[in-house]
Amino acid sequence: MSAQAQQSEEEWADIAPDAARRLVIAAVQAFAERGYHATTTRDIASRAGMSPAALYIHYKTKEELLYQISLVGHRLALDILERPALADGSPAERLADAVRSFVRWHAEHHTTARVVQYELDALSPEHRAEIVGMRRATDAAVRGIIEDGVRSGDFDVTDVPGTTLAVLSLCIDVARWFSTEGRRGPDEVGDSYAALALRMVGAVGA
After folding, report:
1. What is the pTM of this model?
2. Using CA atoms in the order 36, 38, 39, 41, what is the torsion angle rounded to 10 degrees?
3. Residue 186: is the preceding peptide bond cis (ω within 30°)?
């Protein structure tokens, strides 16, 4: 098994049975390469080594597959950001940790992250509303750290919502351009972006 295939298996390990997991992995690859609307259920089933009819045993629609991918991805994103938001340490330490971890995930899992972050509008209204709620929670986690820094005098920020959006957008965009063939790995990009985020908030000593 290739390193990429092993990573995909680990990433979706909680999805069972095996056939459902294979379909999710295939859908991620197809959506990332072709986009949600250009991908057919036949494309997904073929990548998973299954018949189109077999897909409907596990997922009623292509949109349900996208929702499963988006839900898992956004739950993970929220967990990544809430841990430093609730941790001890200075606002600068917590913001650097949040950005470093969030960027590293978007780099290590850039294929999945592209689908999770950029196919939101393809979800049904009900599913989209649920995911938007989770995105608001991720925004609140980062905004809370920045607000703590402003209150303590560690950060110099006049527009907290706007700065929060800028920091998160910077992190998310990594999924769009990151390549395993590039000269910088996930850890290096994470460290670089953490330092950049501290400069964006005017952190003391940044």
Report:
1. 0.88
2. 110
3. no
